[in-house]
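Handoff note, outgoing to incoming analyst
You'll be picking up this chain. Sequence as last confirmed:
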Amino acid sequence: MTTGDDEVAVDGPETPAVPTTPHVVALRTVPWPTGQHLWRQVAGEVRWSLTPPWTWLSGVAANLALSLLWLIWVPLRGAPHRDWAIVVGTYFAIFILADVTTTNVLGADAVRVRLALLRDVRLRRILLVKNLTLLVVVGMPTLIATAVVTLTSEADYRLVVTLPGVAFPILTWLGVGNLVSVALPVAAVPLKERWRRRRQVWPTARWLLHLGLPYALLLAVGPVSRLPTLLARGLHLPRSDSIHGATVLITGLALWGVGTAAALMVARSRGVPLR
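Most recent structure output, in case you need it:
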């Protein structure tokens, strides 16, 4: 089975046997919106996120709670040379997004995604809608909080630096998340069911791998934050807040594009193993 121009194979039969557990039925109460404008699809995805059992949104809420608890236990300490608004915004953005919330956007919604692919919805459109939904639910509140911190502690012109500085890790993790989501999607299964299947070695190992992978990637993606500065030096760009902010934002968009393109290449070569 292919999905339009993306030529993405979907693992499994043409008409997937979908279990009728309450968990799955709840996931199907808001079907994937086909034949609609992009923003209507995003609105539909946000509505699905707010529909019980809140499989995806519960991960966002859990990460936010953990980030607040960690902040209480180990308070942030802004160095003199660091922008406090960027430190705070980046902290919450990375803590929330460096998790299966971002790296399993297809598996967390496996039933609806699989049915959408079988209905010839292009994978790139699915990823775009998922990413925009994450931006609405996680990115926008983080950016708004960054703007508030900036305006209350710095001059307003600093927004051209602080907002791109926080948007950069968000865009970077969305790109990384797209690649991992296609390469290693793990369908959402209730913990009780996971426990019953614990003796199935490969499915259990695959599930544990997808849980731990974001934390390993956190160490690998961290050094990427230096890329905008290196680019500015290599291109001998003028030193100004606006140029720096534009460089950071463009680099973040480029990294998101590279990660998404790599995800589509992986999907074309091996399909989307939604298991």
